[in-house]
Design goal:
mainly alpha; about 0% strand
Length: about 170
């Protein structure tokens, strides 16, 4: 555990998680308002689209890049960790904005709640795996982390189809 405390990415990750928590709670308590309408969507929806697109594309690129350029794995892993935590922050703002809506405008949480649970699972397992916390279970975290990505992508598409009224 001592070496992880010297890891720059560990502290930036902790900072991003703390900012996410502050923005999540602050959005629910109406300290922050991300309801500004830009085009046909609110700002919090744009945040979730940006977060989703990063997760979708970079995870696919990451899988290819880490095999194609194994000597640059630390660089790619840094982008993976910080980029996905930033995506988690943006998606958390969206989720908090949705669950803090007034009762008469409360959303159907079905796929959104499942997605957010999968995001939390991905963040937790990724954090444990990246910083080798509970190292003896590392293979288990890797399996849970990778399989959750596949489920997340499928559920995101169902969530989008549901949101635009196709399902």
């Amino acid at each position: 555990m001592k070496s992880v405390l010297r890891d720059f990415y560990f502290w930036v990750s902790i900072l991003l998680l703390a900012i996410t928590d502050i923005l999540f709670v602050g959005t629910i308590l109406d300290w922050f308002d991300f309801g500004l309408v830009i085009g046909q969507y609110r700002l919090n929806h744009w945040f979730s689209w940006i977060g989703f697109l990063f997760v979708l594309f970079y995870i696919a690129f990451f899988v290819v890049l880490k095999r194609r350029f194994p000597t640059k794995i630390k660089y790619f892993l840094g982008i993976h960790v910080l980029g996905n935590l930033t995506s988690y922050l943006l998606i958390s703002i969206h989720f908090a904005s949705q669950i803090s809506r007034p009762a008469q405008f409360y959303p159907d949480l079905g796929t959104g709640l499942v997605l957010y649970i999968f995001m939390i699972t991905l963040v937790a397992t990724g954090f444990l795996q990246r910083f080798n916390i509970l190292g003896t279970f590392r293979k288990n975290w890797r399996f849970l982390h990778a399989s959750s990505v596949v489920a997340l992508i499928v559920i995101i598409f169902v969530h989008i189809l549901h949101g635009i009224g196709i399902l």
